[in-house]
Amino acid sequence: MHLEPGAYPAPPGATSRRLEWTFLPPHLRAYVERRCGSPVVEAISQTSGFTPGFASVLVCADGSRHFVKAASVKAQRLFADSYREEGRKLAALPASVPAPRLLWMLDDDWVVLGIEHVEATMPRRPWRRADLDATLDALEVVADELTPAPLELDTFAGEFASFLDGWAHVRATHDLPHLDEAEALARRYAEVCTGDTLVHTDIRADNVLVDATGKAWLVDWNWPVLGAAWLDSFFTLIGPRGDGLDVDAVISSRRLLRDVPAESLDIALALVVGYFLSACDQPVPPTSPHLRDHQRWQGQVCWDWLAERRGW
Fold it and tell me: Looking at domain 21-117, which of 2.30.30.40, 3.60.10.10, 3.40.50.300, 3.30.200.20 is its CATH number?
């Protein structure tokens, strides 16, 4: 039995309610302008993603552009911690990785990241094959350059163990066939996801930028772990699959995916089904009104894909 995910329900590029430049403390705005080297004349808030931290392209009087992220340690501790970790990980990435560079960082009562501005746009929705190929090309570079990982990280098996907890909720709320088999697959995830590659774990359209040359840049390096080299490429296909692309043909054409056993791919899908179809029923965060719709759609896409692959 399939679920019908329909069209992607969240408005691309307008999914987050973020802090605006004018609401940052005056002393912090002054500090950022000193680091940028010129007064800020325009702040273009980046309203994609699902977090409320400040994230804007700052246009300065001298014509330069800077991408800056900020979160209050006191008022937004979770997001400040996330930005701190992103700064640590960005600083460790070699220049060969297609990611904007960390230029400077403040860690005080606010965590602030000054990141290289890349003139590029997010992939359009629905996904186009050219944007997907550019993203997968970038992920192949990541796998090549970050195996072994250049810094100490938690493992995929350890960090994603909590995804199994969602299966009790899925079983209680969904009258679907083959749930026993799907959960059994999910519980084998550690067998197939282990590796020594730095895995980004959060590649989706709002964490990718494609420039005028067709090169993809990967952003938001908050949650990398150690895992199998194919994981990012595979999970990237969830959105394109939901948007109607033939991702099974993509799998057969990509060097990180084509030799992965079909059973391993099914196990990875089953793992995220349990997470998405449970997380989507949690309360809606006021600063991220589209998060649960996004998670529900992702879960439905993954279940539909898994059911098709397994012949359910």
Answer: 3.30.200.20
